[in-house]
Amino acid sequence: MPDAWSAKRERQYDHIKESALERGKSEEKAKEIAARTVNKERRKKGETLSGKKRTEGTGNPNTSLESRTRDELYNRAKQLGIDGRSKMSKEQLVKAIRKRA
Question: 95 is in which domain, residue-wise?
């Protein structure tokens, strides 16, 4: 278990690992499942930076473009094949997406 984990995350890790072992997983696989799950929860809760910053998705299609995050807009621009998206601000991304879509 990494040192950066809180006591809560260590308990969560132990619980998930034990559960995986009970389901017949090997010790190594149980540790991997538990660590991946705990790290995923930490990323969701903002306890750590995700190593995959641009993988948040494109946002809810039922919400306005302005209410989405820059990363969500970036991902949508990537889907649409908009060039120069990495240097665009949030406002520029909104304009480019509207123009393309």
Answer: 65-100
